[in-house]
Amino acid sequence: MGGPPDGRYDALVIGGGIIGLVTAWRAALRGLRTALADPAPGGGAAWVAAGMLAAVTELHYGEQTLLGLNMASARRYPDFVAELEEASGQDVGHRACGTLAVAFDADDRAHLRELHTFQRGLGLESEWLTGRECRRLEPMLAPGVHGGLRVSGDNQVDPRRLTAALLTACERAGVAFHRARAERLLLDGDRATGIELAGGTRLTAERTVLAAGSLSGRLAGVPDDVLPPVRPVKGQVLRLSVPERYAPFLSRTVRAVVRGGPVYLVPRENGELVIGATSEELGWDTTVTAGGVYELLRDAHEVVPGITELPLVETCAGLRPGSPDNAPMLGPTALPGLLLATGHHRNGVLLTPITGDVMAEALTSGELPPEARPFTPRRFAAPAATPSPAQEQHP
Ligand code: GLY
User: Which residues lie within the region annotated Disordered (predicted)?
Assistant: First the structure.
């Protein structure tokens, strides 16, 4: 595909996963001439993800700043979905079903109790239930479930349908797709000016966004001091199918801590039941292993024994783009013309709406909106060299 008439885009996005797609869509809606480069747009980690919008139940200690961004994105989801479904003509499987997080044994219960105290201390909506109350909500839960947390605001979306809808919305908004791999960033002096694709085609742009998920740290030509510190974090996921005669098998997302290990079961309205996920630091490995499948089934079975009756229809593994503080890198880098939208780690699907909005703002105005400023990529820049105390003693 050729470029715009003057050969230069306003915005060029590297990566066609959900984060690249939402960035391109939102940029095009702002009137920017936008291109996206990816050999196979619509893939990436979202193809594997379960699609939990779990800002509260997936809260981690020390991640309160990230919680603010997660909650802000969760609040935008209903309007975002309505706009995307209108723009694409496609249903994205958004389900306001809430989440139940349950404990398997006394230690897991103590862990969840702590989490509940932490959540309440932050003013989050989370209700403690006894084991019996949990089973009343979800009769398929094991008799041994020791209580849990009901979080009505943690919903779900189908990431595969979300991605497909974003692709269509991009096409309809006039995003130019270049179905080739970005080989390297092009520089003119100290400014990023575009990319060279595999095969040698060059695309130039006023602003280039690196949104290549776990691959974002590998683009040639990016100076070391702005290369994002992203690493792949492997997640294995299973997909089961609930036959009509068992429906509704589960009515809401069920998360559990089983002997200290997390597992989740995400039931879709179309009968799919997603079970996830491992979290493995194994580099670029996406092998589905017997051990991974065994652990997921073992833990899910402890909480919902009836899963053994269900057909297992798919196993897959993807790579979360992990960052040093588990939060995304959004907006301008120290290299003029280069922006980042990567490092979303466990929260890519949840953070899709707000990422699209803040990146469109950064592409248009050059500035990040206030809610995204803590997530500037510059927080990982090496500190400027300062004289050591010993040096300071000399005149
Ligand atoms: N947010 C779910 C996961 O990363 O497995």
Answer: 367-395
